[in-house]
Design goal:
With 376 residues, the chain is α/β, with parallel strands linked by helices. Helix content is 32%, strand content 29%. The chain has nine helices and 21 strands. It has helices spanning 12-22, 41-50, 66-87, 106-125, 149-157, 176-189, 210-227, 236-246, 251-254, and strands spanning 2-7, 28-31, 53-56, 92-98, 129-134, 136-138, 170-175, 197-201, 206-209, 257-258, 261-264, 267-270, 280-286, 291-296, 302-308, 310-317, 324-329, 334-338, 342-348, 354-360, 372-373. It has a six-stranded parallel beta sheet with strand order 2-1-3-4-5-8, with helices on both faces. The model has no long low-confidence stretch (mean pLDDT 95).
C-alpha cells in the first residue's frame, strides 16, 4: 500500500488526482491534506510523516502583483522542505512544474526555482524526486478565467457569453485524466528503496491552435447544447473535450429534456437520440421500487431515456454531497445525460413496470469497463 498525500488537494488537478487514487483502494491510501497545513507547522509535519509519496501541486497561478505569485510559490516549497527535514522523512516528492519555466514571468520562475530547491533537498537527503514539466492541463470542473482557456471558453459558451481568442497560438494540451494516470505510473515504477532524481517532461495528448479548439467547442454548443444531438467525436481527445464542455452546463436547469411525441391511430413514435458517433444502445425493464445503477464513469457519455412508467434519476458529483433529482414519466418521454464523475441511478417510482432505453458511446469491455460503484 502506497500512502499518498497531495498538497493542493482541493484544487483542479488535486481533486482529480485524489479521485483517481480512490479508484485503486488496494494500491493507494490517500493521506488527507488541507491548505491550512501550510500555516500550521505541526499539521504539516504530521502530514509529511504519514506519506510515502507527496505530490506537490499547491501553487498560486494568478495575482495582480506578479511578485506575490513568486513569493507565495517559493514559500510553499520551503515550508514543505522544512517540515520533511524536521521530521527526517524522505518521501518520494513529485513536483508539478510548468512549460512556463522557460518564460520570463514570475510564475515560470517560481516553478523553475521551486523545482531546483526540491531537487537539492532530494540530493542532500538521499530521497527520490520527480520534477514534472506539465503541458497545459484541461478537463472537467476547471475554474474559468483561472485554470485553462478551455474552461473559460466552455463556461462562456454555456452561459450566454461570447468567448474570444486573444492569442491564436498552437497549444500543447493534456487532459487531467491523462496527467493523473501519468503521475500514478510514476508512483508505481520506482522500486522500494530506489533513489531516483529525474526531470520528467510529461507528454501532451494533442496540439491545436486556440481557434481550432474554439471551433470544436462552438460545434458542441450548436449541436448538443442547443439541439441535444451527440456530435461526431473522431478520437479520444475530442471525447475528452466534449465531456469537459458538458460539465459546464447547468444540469439542474437542463434536465430532464422532454422528447417530441408523434401519435396517430397506429400508436406513438418518439425519436430518442441523434448521433454523430457510434456506441451501444440497450433497454431495461425495472419493477416497481427497484433502483439500478449507483455508479459513475470517468470518460463515458451516457443517456437514460424513460419511455414507459415513472422514474427518478439521481446524480451526485463524486466528492460532493448535493444530489440532483429528476422525475420522468413515460407519458412524456424524456432523457437525462450523465456527466463524467457523477454517480447516478434510476429508480422505478411508479406502480407499473419501468421501460428505460440506454445509450453509451462505447461498447462494454469487461477488461476496461470504466464503471465504478458508489451510492448516490
Amino acid at each position: 500500500m502506497i500512502k499518498v498525500g497531495i498538497t493542493g488537494q482541493a484544487g483542479f488537478v488535486g481533486t482529480h488526482l485524489y479521485n483517481y487514487l480512490g479508484l485503486q483502494p488496494d494500491v493507494f491510501e490517500r493521506v488527507p491534506f488541507e491548505d491550512v497545513f501550510f500555516d500550521q507547522e505541526d499539521l504539516l509535519r504530521a502530514f509529511v510523516k504519514r506519506c510515502d509519496v507527496i505530490v506537490h501541486l499547491a501553487a498560486m497561478n494568478r495575482h495582480p502583483d506578479p511578485a506575490v505569485i513568486y513569493d507565495t510559490n517559493i514559500r510553499l516549497v520551503k515550508r514543505l522542505i522544512l517540515a520533511m527535514e524536521h521530521e527526517r522523512v524522505t518521501p518520494h516528492v513529485l513536483f508539478s512544474s510548468s512549460t512556463q519555466e522557460e518564460r520570463d514571468n514570475e510564475y515560470g520562475k517560481s516553478k523553475r526555482d521551486g523545482r531546483t530547491l526540491l531537487e537539492k533537498w532530494a540530493q542532500k537527503s538521499k530521497a527520490s524526486f520527480t520534477g514534472m514539466v506539465v503541458p497545459n492541463v484541461y478537463g472537467p470542473f476547471g475554474r474559468p478565467n483561472y485554470n485553462s482557456f478551455i474552461a473559460t471558453f466552455c463556461y462562456k459558451l454555456t452561459h450566454g457569453e461570447i468567448p474570444e481568442v486573444l492569442q491564436d497560438g498552437s497549444v500543447r494540451l493534456i487532459h487531467v485524466g491523462s496527467l493523473c494516470q501519468h503521475i500514478l505510473g510514476k508512483m508505481q515504477t520506482r522500486l522500494p528503496g530506489e533513489m531516483v532524481i529525474e526531470w520528467d517532461e510529461v507528454p501532451w495528448d494533442f496540439e491545436k491552435k486556440v481557434s481550432e479548439i474554439l471551433a470544436l467547442l462552438e460545434n458542441y454548443k450548436r449541436l448538443y447544447f442547443e439541439k441535444g444531438i451527440i456530435p461526431e467525436l473522431g478520437n479520444r481527445d475530442e471525447v475528452n473535450l466534449f465531456n469537459t464542455f458538458r460539465c459546464y452546463m447547468d444540469q439542474k436547469a437542463r434536465f430532464p429534456v422532454k422528447l417530441e411525441r408523434h401519435e396517430d391511430a397506429r400508436g406513438v413514435f418518439v425519436e430518442t437520440i441523434r448521433l454523430g458517433v457510434g456506441g451501444q444502445v440497450s433497454f431495461s425493464t425495472t419493477v416497481s421500487g427497484v433502483t439500478r445503477g449507483n455508479h459513475y464513469h470517468t470518460r463515458k457519455i451516457e443517456r437514460f431515456t424513460v419511455i414507459r412508467g415513472k422514474a427518478r434519476i439521481q446524480l451526485r458529483r463524486v466528492g460532493t454531497s448535493e444530489v440532483l433529482n429528476f422525475d420522468l414519466d413515460g407519458n412524456e418521454p424524456a432523457y437525462v445525460d450523465m456527466p463524467v464523475w457523477y454517480t447516478h441511478n434510476i429508480t422505478n417510482t411508479g406502480d407499473e413496470e419501468l421501460y428505460t432505453q440506454f445509450w453509451i458511446n462505447e461498447w462494454y469491455d469487461p477488461e476496461d469497463g470504466d464503471t465504478y460503484f458508489e451510492k448516490v
